[in-house]
């Protein structure tokens, strides 16, 4: 048995599964032939062992499918609401300093390591450790984390579905033009200090109509399932099932739309936000650093957690998607493109968020740091209010929440791919039977839906909101860049992770 994970996989991982068969890179060789066996006179009368059949493994239809799938997996809802919220909470632009430090010395090196492991081993999170069975528990841990992420992440997608359905009403139910909100907005809806109520219509719609947090008495009385959200959750899982029914060959085509459409909507929101009164105040708050915040350990802890949350490192999705690459794919190039695109999008989305926050602050006559809600409510309070200010607000509301849905679906593709790839690699006979594979995927989605119903009761929605507040052939230059990654893997990344853990423990003790 081979115990060295760096041993060439033709001598290691493939020999474990193929029992002497000669296969090409990534294990794709439908015409594999048995390796020649030595002939012995004593074995002349014994029958030859039946060779283990080689089950072909899918590959991406093109390199752009893999790139767009990874970008869609990394660029998710956290880029729209979590990154701007962390900037908003940690002193504006100063947060960008620890964020990019953690990106270059922890995020990018570990991202490359996970992609390389998946591409070289051509296997999912569990099977890839056949070369070193001692580490197989890492893959099982990835599977558990992916399961938990899928459960709560699709609930957020269900929220976007609810807003999407509500967006077909004119006027929008959270706008001041709605009759039910006439008493909240008063006679005037523009001008400095015209709104004096404690809660805006968008905040009331979010807390009462969507979450229903005002109807729960506590954990001892979770209340009934909120059936509008339950139906939205069911629709989200049906879409996931249909898009993943044919594996990466179907999801790889879907990402051409789902990974590119959000950028179009963000550009429109930035242009519209720039025309609003007070938007420069919000952008200044976003970009002007408060240098004293660099001495706060929580700022650095939030930066490190956001890098891991946004890039989706250590969950198994990246490893699984890379396992469908060709053996000689330039993984260093892909790493630089994906990580740069992901973090640039976070920075890009911040302008859309803070231009709207600046306008909200101008309307309420308060500093930018005091407007909007915290946590995921930022995307479901600040953005809906911005949409209500746009000409043709119904159309743009539909576009925006369709964008949020696509961002969430792309990320969920990656997490679900990590789970399904792990199971299909452990039970490869499922790959050859389309019916059994479809039944497995359908049963998995249905079980996740049933467990997700626990998160759409009155009390669990409030508790889930609190949890989310706490909580993404090598050219010559590649060889030189690898020196940087080696230094990070050997020294910088472990050191910073240990320091971050030490700081986190100290912060918890002090609190």
From TrEMBL:
Bias (Polar residues) ranges: 23-43
GO CC term, one of those recorded: plasma membrane
Residue segments, region Disordered: 23-52
Transmembrane segments: 66-84, 96-117, 138-164, 227-248, 260-287, 307-324, 336-357, 386-407, 439-461, 481-499
Segment forming the signal sequence: none
Gene Ontology molecular function: amino acid:sodium symporter activity; metal ion binding
Record: residues binding Na(+): 72, 75, 79, 310, 342, 407, 410
Intracellular or extracellular location(s): Membrane
Keywords: Disulfide bond, Membrane, Metal-binding, Sodium, Symport, Transmembrane, Transmembrane helix, Transport
Superkingdom as given in the UniProt entry: Eukaryota
Disulfide bond residue pairs: 176-185
Any Pfam family hit: SNF
Main localisation: membrane
Membrane topology, as annotated: Multi-pass membrane protein
BP GO terms, sorted: amino acid import across plasma membrane
Family to which this protein belongs: Belongs to the sodium:neurotransmitter symporter (SNF) (TC 2.A.22) family.
Name under which the protein is recorded: Transporter
Naturally occurring in which organism (per UniProt): Dicentrarchus labrax
């Amino acid at each position: 048995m081979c115990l060295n994970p760096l041993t060439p996989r033709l001598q290691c991982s493939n020999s474990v599964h193929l029992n002497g068969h000669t296969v090409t890179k990534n294990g794709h060789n439908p015409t594999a032939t048995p390796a020649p066996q030595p002939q012995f006179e004593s074995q002349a009368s014994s029958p030859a062992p039946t060779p283990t059949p080689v089950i072909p493994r899918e590959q991406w239809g093109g390199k752009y499918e893999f790139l767009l799938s990874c970008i869609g997996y990394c660029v998710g809802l956290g880029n729209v609401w979590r990154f701007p919220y962390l900037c908003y909470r940690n002193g504006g632009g100063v947060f960008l300093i620890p964020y990019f430090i953690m990106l270059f010395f922890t995020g990018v090196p570990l991202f490359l390591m996970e992609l390389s492991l998946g591409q070289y081993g051509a296997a999912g999170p569990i099977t890839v450790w056949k070369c070193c069975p001692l580490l197989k528990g890492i893959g099982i841990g990835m599977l558990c984390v992916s399961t938990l992420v899928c459960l709560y992440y699709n609930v957020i997608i269900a929220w976007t579905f609810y807003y999407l359905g509500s967006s077909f009403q004119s006027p929008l139910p959270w706008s001041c033009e709605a009759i039910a909100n006439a008493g909240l907005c008063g006679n005037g809806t523009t001008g400095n200090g015209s709104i004096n109520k404690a809660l805006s219509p968008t905040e009331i719609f979010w807390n009462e109509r969507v979450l229903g947090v005002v109807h729960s008495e506590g954990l001892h009385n979770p209340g009934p399932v909120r059936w509008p959200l339950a139906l939205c959750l069911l629709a989200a899982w049906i879409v996931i099932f249909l898009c993943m029914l044919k594996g990466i060959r179907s999801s790889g085509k879907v990402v051409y739309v789902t990974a590119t459409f959000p950028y179009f909507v963000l550009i429109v929101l930035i242009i519209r936000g720039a025309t609003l009164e007070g938007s420069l105040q919000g952008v200044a708050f976003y970009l002007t650093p408060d240098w004293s915040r660099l001495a706060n350990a929580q700022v650095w802890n939030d930066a490190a957690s956001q890098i891991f949350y946004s890039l989706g490192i250590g969950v198994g999705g990246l490893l699984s998607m890379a396992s469908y690459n060709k053996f000689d794919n330039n993984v260093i190039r892909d790493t630089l493109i994906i990580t740069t695109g992901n973090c640039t999008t976070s920075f890009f989305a911040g302008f859309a968020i803070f231009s709207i926050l600046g306008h909200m602050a101008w309307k309420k006559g308060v500093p930018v740091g005091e407007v909007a809600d915290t946590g995921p409510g930022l995307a479901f309070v600040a953005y809906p209010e911005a949409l209500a200010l746009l000409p043709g607000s119904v159309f743009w509301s539909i576009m925006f929440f369709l964008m949020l849905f696509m961002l969430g679906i792309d990320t969920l593709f990656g997490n679900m791919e990590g789970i399904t790839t792990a199971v299909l690699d452990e039970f490869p006979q499922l790959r050859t039977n389309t019916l059994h594979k479809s039944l497995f995927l359908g049963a998995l989605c249905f079980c996740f839906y049933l467990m997700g119903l626990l998160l759409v009761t009155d009390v669990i929605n409030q508790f889930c909101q609190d949890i989310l507040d706490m909580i993404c052939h090598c050219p010559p230059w590649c060889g030189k860049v690898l020196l940087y990654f080696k230094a990070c893997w050997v020294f910088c990344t472990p050191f910073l992770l240990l320091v971050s853990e030490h700081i986190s423990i100290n912060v918890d003790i002090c609190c």
